[in-house]
């Protein structure tokens, strides 16, 4: 599907409970009609060139997919989950091999992947009203430097998403 960049270390074990949530939830309304407006390809990864971002209506809500021109490079997906809550997504994610709770810029979040977190990884951030933002990076080529640190990259990008939403 789609991917997003965020940097974070993933582990197959569940970490302790996340800290207290930020004072106010993230408001998705500014970008809800088009999450592709969050970033340009240059802002996502200045080392790569991207095709035109693709706005998608997914089963979870609006999403944007940034597809690299070079097939060997990472792709990014950011989804505004307005049809499934943060808690529903977390319950599903716990079934994967990689899951850990964390805080991203003061907001409850979790890092997850059905596998070992290499190549593809998601960071999901709690937003207002039970909504969530999912940030995914995917690279299918083991030789790429992003492959073993997909979770680290996903978590870092999630922090940048929070900054954009708060701006």
Major sheet, described briefly?
Answer: 7 strands, antiparallel
CATH class descriptor name: Alpha Beta
The helix/strand order is HEEEHEEEEH
Number of helices, counting only DSSP H or I runs of 4 residues or more = 3
Mean pLDDT equals: 87
Number of strands: 7
* Shape field: globular
Radius of gyration: 14 Å
Q: What distance lies between the first and last C-alpha atoms, to the nearest angstrom? A: 28 Å
Helix/strand-derived category reads: alpha+beta
* Uncertain stretches of 5 or more adjacent residues: 1-23
Protein name: DUF3558 domain-containing protein
Organism: Lentzea alba
Outline the structure in words.
The protein is 17% helix and 26% strand. It has 167 residues and is an alpha+beta fold. The longest helix is centred in the last third of the chain and has 17 residues, at 150-166. It is globular and about 40 Å long. Residues 1-23 have low confidence and may be disordered. InterPro entries: DUF3558. This is DUF3558 domain-containing protein.
Please describe the structure with a list of short key phrases separated by commas or semicolons.
167 residues, alpha+beta, globular, Protein Transport Mog1p, Chain A
Write the layout of secondary structure elements.
Layout: H1 41-44, E1 54-57, E2 62-66, E3 75-81, H2 86-93, E4 98-104, E5 107-113, E6 120-126, E7 132-138, H3 150-166
Antiparallel strand pairs: 1-2, 2-3, 3-7, 4-5, 5-6, 6-7
InterPro entries: DUF3558
Pfam families: DUF3558 (PF12079)
Protein name: DUF3558 domain-containing protein
């Amino acid at each position: 599907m789609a991917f997003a960049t965020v940097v974070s270390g993933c582990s197959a074990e569940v970490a302790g409970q996340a800290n207290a949530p930020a004072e106010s939830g993230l408001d998705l309304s500014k970008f809800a009609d088009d999450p592709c407006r969050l970033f340009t390809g240059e802002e996502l990864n200045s080392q790569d060139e991207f095709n035109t971002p693709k706005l998608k209506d997914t089963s979870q809500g609006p999403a944007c997919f940034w597809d690299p021109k070079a097939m060997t490079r990472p792709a990014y997906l950011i989804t505004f989950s307005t049809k499934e809550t943060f808690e529903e997504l977390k319950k599903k994610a716990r079934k994967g091999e990689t899951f850990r709770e964390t805080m991203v810029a003061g907001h409850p979040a979790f890092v997850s992947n059905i596998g070992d977190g290499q190549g593809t990884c998601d960071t999901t951030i709690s937003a207002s009203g039970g909504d969530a933002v999912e940030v995914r990076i995917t690279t299918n080529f083991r030789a790429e430097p992003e492959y073993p640190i997909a979770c680290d990259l996903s978590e870092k990008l999630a922090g940048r998403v929070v900054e954009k939403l708060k701006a």
